[in-house]
């Protein structure tokens, strides 16, 4: 069935249908200005850390950010370049160049659009909590490591390695090139960011800190590298839309990077939308969000930007600033565009050490320290998932860390769910349950009847445990009753285990009753040849016991045909 058009209507459409007043517009414009002030230094800093020009960071925030808000499934989502992508973007640029990065961004947008259209958004959110904490902390470590060079003003003869260990080794070898001026600018920037956040939390601490660092560096004529000295400044406008160079070989080469962009973009944007929901009490549309992220990534690539996603910090700022609709996010993109048109030359004076200080504080804030410590203490399984994800992200690959962490988390969940399924003799499980008020309570103590009660989700993870118990059916019993009234779901593996128990019962000439199974469970069992006349289904275990005693035992043939006419 094709999805209806209403199902994929962006939140902007919902807001406009509700009615958009002048008061709401003012609130959105103020919030948009606030977010733009935060996004301006961040967009340039993230782009520089990713190995591209600061202008590309602004292109991403302007084109991608506008489209994210216009087509988002969340009222408050703010899109732009994200610190989580730094390592992936840098690796893609290093391997495929800027053209390859833009092509990978476009392909990731197409993947996200398809994922949303196929309604996969609800499944992407099923990422274990230890995985999100682990990969966020790993990304933070990588971001900080990528800023050491500019924080200390180090000079490298060649290109800075991407691998963490190799990076640290190369930076240590040039430690004598450290710049006291760059260190001073970094310290002043970080100190101002932290002090303003504590003393004046509503002030734009990032912009103020970068502005003070730029003005101080210019007045004192400090020998520090700036955006102007490294990149020649930023242009006065966004480039005209154009398609990246396309070829089958190039597409095939950048597909792994595009998949990584799409996977991380989906996770990051949906997490950001969940954060916004928690702050506002609203509910986002996850599939619409993926469609919107897909459109935004294609648009960002067409305008010369790179991968864009929903950003948690900027989205939270948008909510706290009083935004009421996606128009605030669109306004933030327009304000960034106006900055490029009117004040681009001023960006040339921004010291790279100041932007490195900005990202250093971002990296510190990304690490969820209380959550990290709590997961290490909670259980061995959670600690394993957390550390595996963290270490793989830091020392191997971001996508590999997420996938391995997800697999480990899934295995851990299966193991825990499997242990939660309990199998017990029905006499102990059911005596006293349902007999209150009965005129003639059912007595389950009968040497000719063996009854077992299963409690929990009966699936492949519990198959070995349940099967081992069912294998111990007494040879002397004439009737076997399996009580499934406390089984909310059983899968094909469970049905196969029951079918195996049925075959053993038939070989021993036992009758086989199943009590309390839901219609869905009965359909699954019948699909695996566990149905009439081989077994009898009863609504309750009491009915099964009553039937077992009412029928004189004649036996069941090995071919499954009962020797008793009632069966």
Spell the H/E element sequence.
HHHEHHHHHHHHHEHHHHHHEHEHEHEHEH
- The SS-based structural class is mainly alpha
Shape: elongated
* Secondary structure tally, helices: 23
- Please estimate the helix content: 55-70%
| Mean pLDDT metric | 86
- How many domains comprise the coordinates? 2
Low-pLDDT runs? 1-5, 428-443, 554-567
Radius of gyration: 31 Å
First-last Cα distance? 42 Å
Summarize the main sheet: 5 strands, mixed
Strand content: 5-15%
Q: Count the strands?
A: 7
Strand arrangement across the biggest beta sheet: 3-4-5-6-7
Subcellular location: Membrane
Main location: membrane
Protein name: SulP family inorganic anion transporter
Keywords: Membrane, Transmembrane, Transmembrane helix
Mind explaining what this structure looks like?
It is a single chain. Residues 1-5, 428-443 and 554-567 have low confidence and may be disordered. The protein is mainly α and 567 residues long. It is 62% helix and 5% strand. Strand 4 (449-455), helix 20 and strand 5 form a beta-alpha-beta unit. It has 23 helices and seven strands.
Question: Can you lay out the helices and strands and say which pair or pack?
Answer:
Layout (H helix, E strand, L loop, with lengths): L10 H8 L3 H28 L4 H18 L7 E2 L5 H32 L3 H4 L4 H24 L11 H10 L6 H20 L5 H16 L6 H5 L16 H33 L5 H17 L6 E2 L1 H9 L6 H17 L8 H15 L2 H10 L1 H16 L2 H23 L1 E4 H5 L18 E7 L7 H8 L8 E8 L5 H16 L3 E5 L3 H9 L8 E3 L2 H10 L17
Helix pairs in contact: 2-3, 2-9, 2-13, 2-14, 2-15, 3-12, 3-14, 4-11, 4-12, 6-7, 6-15, 6-17, 6-18, 8-9, 8-15, 11-12, 11-13, 16-17, 17-18, 20-21
């Amino acid at each position: 069935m094709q999805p209806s058009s209403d199902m994929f209507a962006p939140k902007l459409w919902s807001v406009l249908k509700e009615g958009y007043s002048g008061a709401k517009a003012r609130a959105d414009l103020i919030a948009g200005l606030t977010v733009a002030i935060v996004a301006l230094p961040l967009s340039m800093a993230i782009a520089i850390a990713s190995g591209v020009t600061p202008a590309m960071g602004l292109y991403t925030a302007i084109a991608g950010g506008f489209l994210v808000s216009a087509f988002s499934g969340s009222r408050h989502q703010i899109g732009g370049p994200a610190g989580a992508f730094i390592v992936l973007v840098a690796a893609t640029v290093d391997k495929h160049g800027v053209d390859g990065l833009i092509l990978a961004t476009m392909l990731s947008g197409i993947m996200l659009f398809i994922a949303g259209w196929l309604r996969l958004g609800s499944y992407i959110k099923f990422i274990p909590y230890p995985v999100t904490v682990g990969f966020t902390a790993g990304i933070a470590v990588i971001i900080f490591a990528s800023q050491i060079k500019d924080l200390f003003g180090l000079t490298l003869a060649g290109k800075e390695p991407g691998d963490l260990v190799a990076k640290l080794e190369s930076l240590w070898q040039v430690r004598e090139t450290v710049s006291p001026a760059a260190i001073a600018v970094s310290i002043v920037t970080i100190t101002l960011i932290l002090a303003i956040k504590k003393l004046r939390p509503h002030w734009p601490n990032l912009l103020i800190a970068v502005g003070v660092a730029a003005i101080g560096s210019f007045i004192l004529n400090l020998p520090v590298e700036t955006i102007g000295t490294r990149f020649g400044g930023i242009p006065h406008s966004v480039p005209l839309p154009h398609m990246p160079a396309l070829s089958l070989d190039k597409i095939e080469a950048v597909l792994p990077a595009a998949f990584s962009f799409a996977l991380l973009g989906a996770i990051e944007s949906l997490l950001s939308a969940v954060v916004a929901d928690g702050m506002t009490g609203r509910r986002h549309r996850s599939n619409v969000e993926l469609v919107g992220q897909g459109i935004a990534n294609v648009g960002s690539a067409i305008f010369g930007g790179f991968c864009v996603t929903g950003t948690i910090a900027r989205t939270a700022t948008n909510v706290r600033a009083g935004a009421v609709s996606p128009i605030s996010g669109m306004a933030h993109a327009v304000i960034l565009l106006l900055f490029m048109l009117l004040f681009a030359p001023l960006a040339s004076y921004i010291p790279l050490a100041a932007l490195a200080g900005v990202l250093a504080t971002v990296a510190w804030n990304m690490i969820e320290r209380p959550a990290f410590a709590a997961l290490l203490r909670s259980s061995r399984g959670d600690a394993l998932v957390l550390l595996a994800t963290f270490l793989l992200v830091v020392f191997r690959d971001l996508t590999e860390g997420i996938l391995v962490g997800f697999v480990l988390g899934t295995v851990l969940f299966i193991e825990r769910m499997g242990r939660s399924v309990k199998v017990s003799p029905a006499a102990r499980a059911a005596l006293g349950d349902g007999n209150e008020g009965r005129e003639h309570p059912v007595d389950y103590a009968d040497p000719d009847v063996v009854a077992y009660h299963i409690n929990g989700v009966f699936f492949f993870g519990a198959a070995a445990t349940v099967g081992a118990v069912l294998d111990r059916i007494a040879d002397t019993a004439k009737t076997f009753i399996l009580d499934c009234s406390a089984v909310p779901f059983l899968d094909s593996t469970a049905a196969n285990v029951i079918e195996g128990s049925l075959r053993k019962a038939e070989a021993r000439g036992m009758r086989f009753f199943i009590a309390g199974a839901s219609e869905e469970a009965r359909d699954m069992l019948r699909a695996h040849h566990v149905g009439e006349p081989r077994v009898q289904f009863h609504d309750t275990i009491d009915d099964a016991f009553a039937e077992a005693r009412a029928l004189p035992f004649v036996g069941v043939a090995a071919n499954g045909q009962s020797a008793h006419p009632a069966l």
